[in-house]
């Protein structure tokens, strides 16, 4: 005599009746149906990868601030902005190789050096213009 791996379970919402007025459904072990989740329950769960990628594009890839570093190269603080550009390129290369921690670290350094270069460059330009105008009244 062989044992059966199926059993009968009462599931809510089933229309199949066994003659006693209760809803039962015969299912096999391992094939139990999960009750459908309510919309509020679904919102508490983790979002799918497509929803995550559309909400925050390229969230997994750290920023390298290459445009900011290139913009800082137009400021007259040559050593700092060149180093910022190098850090930015190194950050991009690290990100492409899969080293996200290194890419984030190098990207933050590139951003910091770019901002310092832009601020110092703006100060130098403003000082140069103000001293030029002040020293030469015919200007």
From TrEMBL:
It is found in: Membrane. It comes from the Eukaryota. Residues 47-56 have a biased composition (Low complexity). The keyword Transmembrane helix applies. The keyword Transmembrane helix applies. Residues 1-21, 38-57 are annotated as: Disordered. Keywords: Membrane, Transmembrane, Transmembrane helix. GO terms for cellular component: membrane. The chain crosses the membrane at residues 65-89, 110-131. Its main location: membrane. Belongs to the CD225/Dispanin family. This is TUSC5 protein.
């Amino acid at each position: 005599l062989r044992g059966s791996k199926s059993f009968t379970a009462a599931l809510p919402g089933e229309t199949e009746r066994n003659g006693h007025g209760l809803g039962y459904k015969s299912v096999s072990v391992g094939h139990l149906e999960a009750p459908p989740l309510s919309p509020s329950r679904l919102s508490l769960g983790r979002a799918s990868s497509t929803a995550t990628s559309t909400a925050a594009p390229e969230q997994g890839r750290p920023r390298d601030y290459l445009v900011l570093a290139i913009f800082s190269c137009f400021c007259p603080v040559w050593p700092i902005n060149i180093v910022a550009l190098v850090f930015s390129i190194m950050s991009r290369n690290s990100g492409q190789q899969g080293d996200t921690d290194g890419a984030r670290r190098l990207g933050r350094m590139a951003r910091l050096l770019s901002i310092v270069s832009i601020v110092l460059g703006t100060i130098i330009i403003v000082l140069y213009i103000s001293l030029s105008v002040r020293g030469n009244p015919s200007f």
